Amino acid sequence: MTGLISIAFKSAAIAFATMPFQPPAASSIAGSVDGLYYLLTGITLFFTVLIFSIIFYFMVKYRRRSEDEIPEETHSPLALELTWTIIPSLICVVLFVWAAALYVRNGRPPASSTEMYVIGKQWMWHIQHPEGPREINELHVPIGEPVQLTMTSQDVIHDFYIPAFRVKKDVLPGRYTSLWFQPTEVGTYHLFCAQYCGTNHGEMIGWVYVMDPADYANWLSGGEKTESMSQQGERLFTQLGCNSCHSTDGSSTGRGPTLAGLYGQPQKLENGQTRVVDETLIHDAIVNPSSIHLPNFQPIMPTYQGQVDEEQILNLIAYVKSLGSQERTNAQ
Amino acid sequence: MADAAVETHAPNPSGFAHQYETLEQQHDAGRLGMWLFLATEILFFGGMFTSYIIYRELHLPAFETGSRLLEVRFGATNTAVLICSSLTMALSIRSAQVGKSKGTIIFWLILTMILGAAFIGIKLRFEWYHDWLEGIVPGLSWTYSGPYQSGVQMFMCFYFFMTGLHALHMVVGLGILTVLVVMAARGRFTPHYFTPLEISGLYWHFVDIVWIFLFPLLYLIGGRYTLGGH
Amino acid sequence: MSTATANLQEIPAESRVNYLNASYGIRSWLLTLDHKRIGLLYLGTITLMFVIGGVAAVLMRLNLMEPQGALMEPETYNKMFSTHGIVMVFFFLVPSIPATLGNFCIPLMIGARDVAFPKLNLMSWYIFVTGCLLMTYALISGGVDTGWTFYPPYSSIYAHTNVVAAALAIFIAGFSSILTGLNFVVTIHKMRAPGMTWFRLPLFIWAMYATSIIFILGTPVIAVTLLLLGLERILHVGIFDPSIGGDPLLFQHLFWFYSHPAVYIMILPGMGVISELIPAFSRKKIFGYSFVAFSSLAIAIISFIVWGHHMFVTGQSIYAGLVFSSLSFLVAIPSAVKVFNWTATLYKGSISYQAPMLYALGFIGLFTMGGLTGLFLASLATDVHLNGTYFIVAHFHYIMVGGAVMAYLGGIHYWWPKMTGRLYPDLWARFAALVIFVGFNLTFFPQFVLGYLGMPRRYAVYPQEFQALNVMSSAGASVLAVGYVIPLVYLIWSLKYGPEAGPNPWKATGLEWKTPSPPPTENFEEVPIVTYDAYEYPTVRAGVARG
Lengths: 332, 230, 547
Fold this sequence. Notes:
A: 332 residues; elongated; B: two-stranded antiparallel sheet
């Protein structure tokens, strides 16, 4: 046992000597999140020390000195009960408002964000730059530019987590979620999957490289020449014959709606519901068209489930977006 | 008296269990117990009802299409059968309460059982077996080729899960009724003691009420009866 | 249990008949209707389950000594953490205090002869044992690797392990909880002794009542959720499968609708125990009785409307996040009220430090820390960074182990003389409590740091830089494990060699101490008539010198 305790203390010493207590703060929101974290730590420390000290003090002062001693009576004043109910309540209100305001603010991507796309699958991350380059388990981004990630899973629920940026969001099959960040420090940072997804969940990790703008531009243009996502999408669009029912120039085919300017528009469905034409709707339309019944059109669109994978669907979405859009993406 | 090898409670000469002070206390406890059990059942079915309602909201046209695959006449008949069975159950309790002969009590109980069995029989023979033949039983016999493939399959899943769970509760109820018939035959019920009838009645009425929610939610809101329907 | 009865038979026969020696033989135990014996049956069963869950934890922590896994392949590690979670939550913590101490003490504390439905009580135990056996079978025949949270689509489509068997085992054990909760609510409503009004009840009863409400209303929902999951897996239909219109988040909502209140099932009884221990070992009436009583009810009620705080990063709407975050802060307040009231009870008390009191004081400290770290998670902005990391693991272990398990051990030590008629060696008991306290903190405090640093949970392998803290945590776990073994030894020892306890070794108030130790089968010779409040310890007026 003494051996184990000494291992414990030795590791503690190493840990405290060499390890920071927080990950690098490398994004525009990291500082504010850390600030709230340290406030919470301070409150925790304060009340912990308060309770521990009072208990310890009472333990010593009021220890039983003889078996027959009889304590003095005390009263339970209502004022005391109310005080220690109201003060913690006020603290909680402050914390809630602070945290919620930060959360709402941190959740709104700047309008000028560059969109990138992420597909999580057991057990790796595919990352797609709109200009074409694809990465596996790596994400290169330029410093100082806001980036919005639109993400989906090809199988189970994953979670995209960059501790240094203090951002995290679940990645779900069948829908798109998004997060955004603006890197503020050049460097290399961990990328983790943070939602248990099976055998190699612990190995579904990677690196985020934040680069100077010049280096990033070099990286982007170096390597294989690839088509942009929307170019690949356009090619697939023709290959799969989508243009036989969907025009891309506003003209009507009678068989399906034109895709020009469609992205971001609210669309009324046959049953009266209205949905915005976003990534999720396009995804549904491709893999489960019978779930979307438009007025004025017969439900004749065949499903492409199994014929296209998530990457190809993202390319198609990029193409549709390139045909004109009303609003920027709003995937939550 | 108590057997040294097996611990039993000595029979209380007043006819109620030893942990109670009065018969009335035992009755109260039994009734409260059954109401609490019904509360758990509400939450149990509630989970399924909630899921059904959410999915219906998300896949409305598909669920309406699926609902139209069901035959309202059988559902309606079964509703009538169950409501009558609740009546006969209540009448059996009433018989005990006013001191009718055990024959009368048993008569109403058996009638309730017949109606309950009829419910299950109609469901099995005319609905589920039929669905099996038609190929609209998800996971076991699925050859549906109409519109809204996946949504209709989801609807039929919920149909079978919910009515299946309900039918299971009916079967348990039939078991309870059998026990009550045996107890009645032994002359256990008097105007002063009919608690098992009463709390079983609560259970039976609950199972009836669940059906009264299931029937419209599954059968009737398929858009068949709206003005200027689809 | 037959070992215990065999040992008792070797002791010279008591002139007094009690519930332990009223009848002998395995049939008298397996067919008992006595709530006290049923409590002991549960004690044995859940101790076995604790050992299974504990062994899984030891193996996990051993594996985590090295970044690339010291002991096992990731597949096996994943089964270990799933086993640990499922067994500890559903087969240890949920039944622990209610089924053992609740069953044993509730009728005694309210002056009743038994619970309302003794046969149902026995049936509950058999149902629980069935669940335990099925779970053990699931573990032996391949294990489960979905985590105790069973999230689809992994659990419904992709996992190749015994998901259905494990889900069924939990489903079955759930019925045991429901029936126990039902039994307790009726017992507390209908079987209090004359004069035992609601506001004269010991606070343990209030806590058990609140817990039972959650048992009754929450457990059916996990039952139906696991049923749907099992049906999806067996029939290959798409309830939670997005490719055929299902929604995996629906599962999460349904799952957490129970599992959040479930964590209050796990802590409320512990709080009830502490509310008994503090007055008993300070020989003073509890400070703020009605506040503590009502806070139990408040916690139970609010616990049902905070489940969404487990889902802040799932992509749900901001508004849902705001609602659940604010309600999660709200649920913290009644717990804080309890902590303050317990502390204030110590003021001007006559405090002694036997083992139960050490556990109680440890509880207050560790629960305070665990509860305050919950605020980090209720706060939306920080939860984004902390969700899915070791911070969460540390938070809930502070409450479940530093809180609930310590309260459980405190309660076992407090009522042990009543249950067995024997005293255990207090010096060893205090030593074990200290070892547990130290081992616990060494194990779990580093995990808060790991979490903020970004180490995700459920990782079989991890980056090198996290190793020092992991080793520290594993070293602590070995100390903790030793701490848990010590009571097993001396408590069993005390059955044969411990001195006789007498009816009230702690000189505490409460009806359970007014009957012999161990009590007769019928609990009381005559049904007591209550004319006084709970915790009526003698006091002198202020200013009079202390004795």
